[in-house]
Amino acid sequence: MTNTDRKHHEFIIVGSGISGISSALALLRGGFKDFLMLESAEGAGGVWRENIYPGVACDIPSVVYQFAEDQNPNWSKLYAGGEEIMKYLNQTRTKHGLDEQTRYGVKVSKAEYDDRNAQWNISTHDGEEYSCRYLIKATGAFNSPLIPKIPHLEDFEGTLFHTARWPKDLDLSGKRVAVLGTGSSAVQLIPIVADAAAQLTVYQRTPIWLLPKFDFNIASPFRWAFKNIPGSYALSRKLSYSGIAYFLQVVLSASGKHPRVHRLLESAGRWNIRRQLKDPALIEKFTPNYNLGCKRPSFSNNYYKAFSKSNVSLVSDGVERLTKDGILKRGADKADPFDVIILATGFNILGDASTSLPAFPIAGRQGLNLREYWHNSDGFKAFRGATVSGFPNLFLNLGIPYAGGTSWFETADLISEHIVKCVQTAQSRSSAEVEVKPEAVDAYMADMDKLLDQSVHHTGSCATSSSYYYDKDGKTPLYSGEAPKVSWTETYASPEQSYVFRSMESSAQ
Fold first, then answer.
1. Average pLDDT score over residue span 18-45
2. Does an H or E element contain 109, and which?
């Protein structure tokens, strides 16, 4: 196929979740209108479109869990639920006319860089062909559900599904239900399932650190003030942002520098168990034997209470296998029967079998394969989670490693602004290519490794945490050790220090 046969755009964005929308909004603000979004599903929203399980909500305050340039002063709760977040995302897309620049139901099968023409050639599963100067991979990291390797999983004849594939209109009333996993999704849905099901059994491999959740409805006078009193909403955002940034420092990236506060938060987690439960055996089973932050913590005021109900039980012995009608736990002679089994087992982010990183085959300069590069060659290396050496004109939004930010929205906005700055610099130089320098990537990775020497994963006890933060080499390339906005200032001011800009002639050589 010749290049003239392909549908060409200056930018193609793959994915229409938080990072895809953020990328599109930044392009519009930068004056770039020739872009197309390709979305494999029949609607936008990404992780918030896919996750519709009962109780789904963000664990970041709503006032900062939004796009910086499209703020919503009308959140109903401090921590918004999934439906409200989806409504916000859809309203933002409609406001900026993004549906007109999106193709739904289009799944990308591969993207290959054309050195001679300094462009990306993109193929879809339906046989369509596209090309673009700049490719933005905005497919996120939480779209590869982790299915546990339990023997005879396929033998179960009842209803079995992952939380990210929750069946619409599912009725659990009167059902015998099992939930495998006790991560963030399980914490949100278990109290609701406990009220609906006739019997609920939760299979716990590793307990989770849970802190009290200070959630509340935002009263109408506050929403009125946010809209009508100058500075009030900005102040609430600043306070929330500062609190989250400090929390992440203490719990994750620099816990070694804040040992007393870190211990205090762990004490709050243990108190949160004791205030909801009186059974010493249950309290012991729910108390983690690893440090807070080794795996993703969460917040809840009613999770533990659910296990005081007569129809709810906890199994921490492990699962031997599934049978056609239930689950055989380790050491048992007989399987426990269930009608529904819910896999609350999280996502495969850094594993070899992950379909997230990348979500489709990407071949860069001279055929360099991004999956091979990340998983088998150089490891998860990137510059600020946004660009990879050897892949000109490719940008990763919500990529890894070490993409800074206090929430996915902030991370996406930071990377989106970075993309626009790079492209504007390329255009000012009449350059056809922009590619991050390998030495810039190596320097950034080294800086992050040094900064994260004081992270809980280096200073704490994490061996028993079973955390998805780790890759196969024992590194934790998912979060940055830098203060987010400060860390990007130098790159914004002079992208020439980190990137090489090539003309069409030099790129073809």
1. 97
2. strand 108-114
- This prediction's pTM: 0.94
* Residue 314 and residue 182 share a domain: yes
Chain centroid to Cα 306, Å, comes to: 27
Q: 56 and 15, same structural domain? A: yes
Count up the domains in the chain and report the number. Answer: 2
Q: Tell me, what's the pLDDT at 352?
A: 76
We report the CATH number of the domain holding residue 90 as 3.50.50.60
Phi first, then psi, for residue 9 (nearest 5°) are: -140, 155
**Per-residue pLDDT reduced to its tens digit, 49-84:** 999 999 999 999 999 999 999 999 999 999 999 999
* CB-count burial class (<10 Å; 0-12, 13-18, 19+) for 52: middle
Do 327 and 319 meet the contact criterion of CB atoms below 8 Å apart? yes
Does one domain contain both 199 and 74? Answer: no
pLDDT of residue 280: 96
pLDDT surpassing 60 at residue 508? no
**Helix (H), strand (E) at residue 129:** strand 129-137
pLDDT score, position 502: 94
AA identity, residue 375:
H
Q: Is residue 283 part of a domain?
A: no
Whether 278 is in a domain gets the answer no
Beta-sheet strands, E only, within 25-104: 35-39, 102-104
Lookup result for tokens 């590869």: 144
Q: Which of 299, 295, 333, 331 is nearest to 315 (CA)?
A: 331
Residue 143: the pLDDT is 83
∠ Cα 494 498 501 (to 5°): 85
